[in-house]
Amino acid sequence: MRPFNLTGTLRCFLKAQHGATSIEYAMIASGVSIAILAVVTTLGETIQTVFYDKLSNLF
Fold first, then answer.
1. Is residue 2 scored above 70 in pLDDT?
2. Alpha carbons 59 and 22: distance in angstroms, whole number
3. Which residue from 12, 18, 23, 32 puts its CA 20 to 30 A from 47's CA?
């Protein structure tokens, strides 16, 4: 049985880049979803106002 090499394991862990890519993609996805939410909320209120005005003019 060979001894555990903590410094080698730590050095390997710090060099690894796999997790960084997935975190970057998650941050991009969250930014896009926030932008979509803002646009949908703004357009939704505007469209709702326009349609309610047209509907009230019918009656």
1. no
2. 55
3. 32
User: Looking at residues 37-56, what average pLDDT do you find?
Assistant: 90
CA–CA gap between residue 13 and residue 20 (Å, rounded): 12
Instruction: Give the pLDDT mean for 19-32.
Output: 87
Both structure tokens of 48: 């709702």
Quote the CA–CA distance of 13 and 8 in Å, as a whole number. Answer: 9
Burial 1-20 (b: 16+ CB within 10 A, else e): eeeeeeeeeeeeeeeeeeee
Ordered by start, the domain boundaries in the chain are 34-59
Cα-Cα end-to-end distance for the chain:
87
